[in-house]
Amino acid sequence: MVWSGRAESDYLEALNENGKEGWEFVEFIPKVLQPKGVKGQEILLKRELPEY
After folding, report:
1. Do 45 and 18 meet the contact criterion of CB atoms below 8 Å apart?
2. How many domains does the chain have?
3. Which of 34, 37, 38, 52 has the smallest number of Cβ neighbours within 10 A?
4. Is residue 33 a part of any domain in this protein?
């Protein structure tokens, strides 16, 4: 699969579910770089932790 700049529906579903818990999307990170492109991706999310 070639990255088209649009996330597949399973990525969007995961992002929306995590967003409900306060997580914010940062970026997609390629798991494995190959001569013909990227194979697999990780999603990087962030959120603030409550102070104790």
Report:
1. yes
2. 1
3. 52
4. yes
Q: Around Cβ 29, how many Cβ atoms within 10 Å?
A: 11
What own/partner pairs with CB < 8 Å and gap ≥ 24 does 39-47 have? Answer: 43/11, 43/14, 43/15, 45/15, 45/18, 47/21, 47/22, 47/23
The residue written with tokens 């992002």 in the block is: 15
Q: What is the amino acid identity at position 11?
A: Y
The answer to whether position 19 is within a domain reads yes
Q: Band of the pLDDT at 21, cuts 50, 70, 90?
A: very high
Q: Using a CB cutoff of 8 Å and minimum separation of 24, what contacts does 21-27 make?
A: 21/47, 22/47, 22/48, 23/47
Give the structural domain span for 38. Answer: 9-46
* Per-residue pLDDT tens digits for 31-44: 766 677 666 777 88
